[in-house]
């Protein structure tokens, strides 16, 4: 099936990040659709259709945050993201002995710090090559107990609150569009559709994530910083500035070939087989992707695509990579089961794990020796091409 309107136009030369080496034209890229936030907010039917298509076919798209209203959600998110990049740099610059005080794995929590190499990227138990710091939405909004927080991060709680509110609102814009398109059961629709399962004021696993990966050796052939995975929750909002994020394209979707074939594909070629293609970071955009919960709710109509983070391509591999994520997840008590008509989750029963159980198993499994097999998500549906079951 051709996907001509997936072809991402090459961004104009101004579309690069100042002070960072440019994303090279020598690697294949993923054909993410670019959706306009402004048009979505205006309920533009054509844009809504493209967004729905992106959610079903790849589960990843760019969201152009340009907003004519400077006080609108797009501008607010961009300003907050800018500041959060500085905040995370300050935190990650601390000594490891200080940072590990905020690793709460032993208490059964995935919030707080995860040190370099403290997670696994494959079933062989290969260590990851990045650090995380996870901030709980419930902690910041006062819905749960306040977790211990490093002194360099604590003063920025108003910034986290602002970012959480805007990122969550974006996710609700996407879920409300999906609710109108999916054949949700009358009961689910009457109860408020998908948005009602993601109430900002209900306890959930929503979180901000800061990520840092040091410069990588492209030639080591296994430059995988974050192993292949699908996201656990519903909608992810991602800001990154250096390449390195790769999606594994479904068999029917071709990558955009390198613009500069003469530049020669370098050491990255070993990282581009089996459908893997780089996602080119774009200024003033975020990347939106869907997670496992939406695959379960839609019984496979929506796609939670496999992705990973490898060494940034070309000169970018020499630079430290930071990224900022917001994971929107269903409320803790929500059961992950089909919510569409004729689906297998129409009963009132207790079938289906809760969102809380699902996230805990997946998040902590990737931090345990031998935990890979037990920490899987909806990868099989994704690898089958996202065909409806
Ligand atoms: O750093 C990135 O670009 C992606 C991070 C990611 O996929 C994740 O944290 O789940
Ligand atoms: Fe992810």
Automatic annotation (TrEMBL):
The keyword Metal-binding applies. One of its GO terms (biological process) is small molecule biosynthetic process. Residues 204-330 form the Fe2OG dioxygenase domain. It comes from the Eukaryota. Keywords: Iron, Metal-binding, Oxidoreductase. InterPro entries: DIOX_N, IPNS-like_FE2OG_OXY, IPNS-like_sf, Iron_ascorbate_oxido_reductase, Oxoglu/Fe-dep_dioxygenase_dom. Pfam families: 2OG-FeII_Oxy (PF03171), DIOX_N (PF14226). GO terms for molecular function: metal ion binding; oxidoreductase activity. Transmembrane segments: none annotated. The keyword Magnesium does not apply. PROSITE patterns: FE2OG_OXY. Residues 1-21, 369-389 are annotated as: Disordered. PANTHER family: 2-OXOGLUTARATE (2OG) AND FE(II)-DEPENDENT OXYGENASE SUPERFAMILY PROTEIN-RELATED. Belongs to the iron/ascorbate-dependent oxidoreductase family. This is Clavaminate synthase-like protein. It comes from Melanomma pulvis-pyrius CBS 109.77. The lineage of its organism: Eukaryota, Fungi, Dikarya, Ascomycota, Pezizomycotina.
């Amino acid at each position: 099936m051709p996907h001509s309107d997936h072809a991402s136009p090459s961004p104009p030369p101004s579309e690069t990040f100042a002070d960072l080496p440019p994303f090279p034209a020598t690697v294949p890229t993923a054909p993410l659709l670019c959706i306009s936030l402004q048009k979505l907010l205006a309920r533009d039917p054509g844009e809504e259709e493209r967004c729905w298509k992106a959610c079903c076919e790849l589960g990843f798209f760019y969201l152009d945050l340009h907003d004519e209203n400077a006080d609108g959600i797009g501008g607010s998110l961009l300003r907050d993201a800018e500041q959060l990049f500085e905040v995370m740099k300050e935190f990650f610059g601390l000594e490891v002995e200080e940072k590990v005080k905020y690793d709460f794995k032993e208490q059964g929590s995935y919030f707080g710090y995860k040190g370099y190499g403290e997670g696994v990227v494959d079933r062989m138990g290969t260590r990851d090559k990045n650090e995380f710091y996870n901030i709980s939405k419930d902690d910041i909004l006062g819905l749960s107990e306040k977790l211990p927080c490093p002194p360099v991060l604590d003063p920025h709680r108003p910034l986290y609150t602002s970012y959480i509110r805007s990122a969550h609102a974006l996710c609700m814009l996407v879920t409300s569009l999906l609710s109108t398109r999916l054949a949700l059961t009358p009961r689910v629709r009457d109860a408020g559709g998908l948005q009602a399962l993601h109430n900002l004021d209900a306890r959930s696993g929503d979180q901000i994530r800061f990520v840092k990966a040091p410069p990588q050796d492209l030639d080591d052939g296994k430059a995988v910083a974050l192993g292949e995975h699908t996201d656990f929750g519903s909608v992810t909002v991602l800001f990154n500035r250096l390449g390195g994020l790769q999606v594994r394209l479904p068999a029917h979707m071709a990558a955009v070939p390198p613009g500069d074939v003469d530049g020669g594909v370098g050491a990255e070629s070993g990282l581009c087989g089996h459908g893997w293609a780089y996602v080119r970071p774009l200024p003033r955009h975020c990347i939106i992707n869907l997670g496992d919960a939406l695959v379960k709710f839609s019984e496979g109509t929506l796609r939670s695509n496999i992705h990973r983070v490898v060494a940034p391509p070309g000169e970018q591999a020499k630079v430290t990579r930071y990224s900022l994520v917001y994971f929107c997840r269903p409320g803790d008590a929500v059961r992950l089961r089909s919510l569409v008509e004729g689906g297998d989750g129409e009963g009132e029963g207790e079938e289906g794990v809760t969102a809380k159980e699902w996230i805990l198993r997946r998040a902590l499994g990737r931090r345990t020796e031998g935990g890979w097999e037990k920490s899987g998500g909806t990868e099989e549906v994704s690898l089958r091409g996202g065909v409806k079951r």
